[in-house]
Amino acid sequence: QKTSIWLINRHDFNYNIEERAETIRNEIISGSYKVSQPLIYRIEKKYGICRHLVNPQPSDALVFQVLVENINEQILKKQPSKNAFYSRDKHSVAKPHSIEDSYFNWHEQWKRLQKKIYNFNEEKEYIVVTDLTNYYDSIDLNELRKVLTSYTGIKEVVIDLIFKIIEDISWKPDYLPYSRRGLPTTNIEGVRLLAHSFLFEIDEVLKQKTNNSFTRWMDDITIGVDSKKQAIETISEISDMLKSRGLALNLSKTNIYNARPVD
């Protein structure tokens, strides 16, 4: 019943959106804005280990997305390579539109990524496939804040509010202090953009190391190299850089493949 009421309230939020937005704006300016309790689902991954999916209240999702969209262009200008992607929402679909239209942006990006992989698969001798261990859960928010501040020239109060919302909507074990580690797993593009931008340093290393023969979809990375030695050196270098940010490659999912068919 709680879930049903929450979904109804979410659906109703778009009615009188201008008035609602003005009320939220006044609360923020006056300092009385408070983040509401999100709805959190536990989704089992394996053996009882669960991922906590966060559904913020519509007002909080709106505030967060607007704040991040305000710095979206500044962040993406710092992206060192066009070979890195993340799942993006489509905001420019004219109404009326079909549900399928909302996936157009994601689908187009995925096709571009696959084309890039195909191209360097034809040119390179080896392919490295890897990803990061528990990426979202491992992001140090203090480090993310440093990175975000270096990419943008926005006022500190805006950064404060962005990270305040992240803290308040994040899942926390009962009564334990907040660790300031981990982005919430939620379907808000702003969160995905922040996670995406945290790996720009890796993109820069891979761009220089491989002559841009790599792709990244969030934390899933595919790299084209000319030799097994180069593959090992590249893995080692990005591993060291990730450790400096409190992150790590997932060794169980890190593999080096021969790009040429074996007779």
From TrEMBL:
Keywords: Nucleotidyltransferase, RNA-directed DNA polymerase, Transferase. Residues 1-263 form the Reverse transcriptase domain. Signal peptide: none annotated. InterPro entries: DNA/RNA_pol_sf, RT_dom. GO terms for molecular function: RNA-directed DNA polymerase activity. The keyword Cell inner membrane does not apply. It holds the Pfam family RVT_1. This is Reverse transcriptase (RNA-dependent DNA polymerase). It comes from Paenibacillus tianmuensis.
